[in-house]
């Protein structure tokens, strides 16, 4: 049997789900994914809890649970009561491409989320979603930017229309923009890998995630906010996006030889959201765990005016106009959002939710209060009991099936940085809404009857199970299995490339997908990990790499994606 010394290509389809992919493969719409399926192995790929981009992709690239790498979300608490945006510098632990580079393997990485600022590698790296702007230093080495420009490849981070899809014309523009961005990413990887041959290549296509978030209600006739009129034109937008990324996969497969193992994966799955809206801070306030500041009449008027002006600007300005205004007044967006937030009296608050961040609602205990672990556990128990009593006003069924406790799920030096409770939105399909202390009587849970706000409100969101497909080398053909987790991909890649696995990884080699004779001839090897405790101690200081203006740019991108209000 040959030794494990294969080249590897990983193609990430952000948010891809077998629920959609397999039927379209059966219909013959995705021929290149069908090639991988026929010649290789597949499994659902269990994501992290919560199943969100920063947490999941970081667990993939390190092979570690979030308690070890320390990245739980796009935001984390900072200062007394504030939050800051995270990026790759917040992550603890060696990445897959860092490990490969250390062993002398050549790598090429394009658009993997949470890779900004780009780390020096033995090859090239173009960072992904956490890049503040197209003008940021997001390429390593720096000269590849000019190489791509000279080759006529217009590589962009930003997409111009996503947060402003109020009309069919803007939706068409966004779909065209997404296709253009993905084609540029494919061309960039091909061009750079041609000039710098790689042992390992990876690219992530984000379009599957973005289009599913914002077009699912056109496709799904059972969706609570199904738009039958829009479905006439946009009902196949998600299907066509999968077809497009399948074409990009085909172009990359044409560059592979017989010694290349191809892996297709997603960081999580996807599914529809309901029209159930929950105001968590109001619930905590009613329970006596949170207190809102009593705003003055002028302050309430400012909040109302800011909210009205914000909606007006979003619905009337073009994306180019909004970009120009944001460039002239980079913190104008933040000013409006601050005025429109419900203020919290921190001196009398024990638990709270950052309601400006809508995509992954998390409940935090006030870290400035001196609570024993017993007291903290009792508070978590109390909050969980309250939340589990919430019912859907239409069906009478519970809104939340569970509240997860990351400290019990994860282990490692950073487990204490996780939120205290995670309502199971990825399982139950509800969305967070803004609490309204200035408008008493608003229900804690209600069904939203307003049409879906294009580009801002999610029609669908993440599910726990993503996709994993592997083909080539000793991978079993036409083989299905279960039990793969996102932390397992990196140790499996290292093994197939003939390298030892750092012994601090939580993932395992997916031996069930590999020829047993190959496993018997090539025992799995391990190496001692570099346990850099001093680095962890300095992580908080070293990771504050976003400037105020960069944070504003990140906020605008996450807002355009629908992650924050």
TrEMBL record:
Return the Pfam families for the record: Phosphodiest (PF01663)
Spell out the protein name for this chain.
Type I phosphodiesterase / nucleotide pyrophosphatase
Check the record and name the InterPro entries matching this protein. Answer: Alkaline_phosphatase_core_sf, Phosphodiest/P_Trfase
The species this protein was found in? Lacipirellula limnantheis
PANTHER family, from UniProt?
A: BIS(5'-ADENOSYL)-TRIPHOSPHATASE (PTHR10151:SF120), ECTONUCLEOTIDE PYROPHOSPHATASE/PHOSPHODIESTERASE (PTHR10151)
Instruction: Please give the superkingdom of this protein's source.
Output: Bacteria
Q: Kindly list the GO molecular function terms attached to this UniProt entry.
A: hydrolase activity
